[in-house]
Amino acid sequence: MQFNIDATSNKARACTIKTAHSTIETPVFMPVGTQATVKALDANDMLSLGAKIILGNTYHLYLRPGSKLIKKFGGLHGFSKFPNSFLTDSGGFQAFSLSDNSKPDENGIMFKSHIDGSKHYFTPQSVLDTQYDLGSDIMMILDDLVALPNTKERIQKSIERTTKWAKEAIEYHKSQQEKGIGVNQNIFAIIQGGTDKEFRKMSAEQLCALEDFDGFAIGGLSVGEPNQDMYDTVEWTTQFMPENKPRYLMGVGTPEDLIENIERGVDMFDCVMPTRNARNGTLFTSFGRVNIKKASFKEDEKPIDEECSCYTCQNFTRAYMNHLFRAGEITYFRLASLHNIHYYLNLMKQARAAILANKWDEFKKEFYLKRGVN
Fold first, then answer.
1. 224 labelled as ligand-binding?
2. What is the pTM of this model?
3. Domains of the chain
4. pLDDT one-digit tens code per residue, 254-283
């Protein structure tokens, strides 16, 4: 991986990440392709939207169709026909979100499949083996994620495990690369610690001391804590992260969350929000959210967003989108998802342009003014 900082504006960064499959300009939002596809869209759609990297889910792909089958078809790139970069998460979040079916211990996480109830055990090494098969450009290591709020004892245990697993993962990855495995794959560690400053500092310093990692993520946020606590935690944590490597905030979030965290020095984001909200009738625009289900849109001749250049806005009206949603037409899911993903990716392009021009403050002010927030 090649990483360059192209410009800064206050703490906001415009960077370039070059992997084996694409050149990624940051700030970047990674659409979530849980099952090797962004829901309702295919590889051609993602290319038309200009996506340079999407996220795949190690846990789900391990269970179905299985990493060995995906490897047989040329990894995620060959299987999905998306030629640009993939980032794959480790399964730690799924262990957290499916906590009724999982149990961590010192060496890994035991879980029951949500599909058939079969038992599986993830370790730092096995998670990487799965991701070697998937052929992703960026691999996240196994971490121990806990819900917030939580006890100090449990959060400290999470940090200890995450650091232990990170050391095991980086040693294993280096040994595999010496054998010619995963030589074009990069590895990121995940900082934990809840919203406690001392814990975040502890986790960040322990992990960032492991210099062989290609980048670092902030995990364990957007799991129930107030937004301002998330922002404060990110602002506190980034100071302990190396400037010369990518910074990734996992599972975040709304357009406002992206803007606030770009301002705090984050480069990379992912979230199911644009596609999930699209399917539920919520569309993101320059002026805030639109609930396309409302009867007021039944005869509305305007596009979803008059400032948007996406395929949906250039061709269809709010009235048509309202009709498709109410009729339960599958076409609605594709058109709405195209729009929302385009909005997110375009917001990142605008943010980057503002940073390159050293006009971040003006950009952020305009972003909120359009939403009626002074």
1. no
2. 0.97
3. 2-270 (3.20.20.105), 280-371 (no CATH)
4. 999 999 999 999 999 999 999 999 999 999
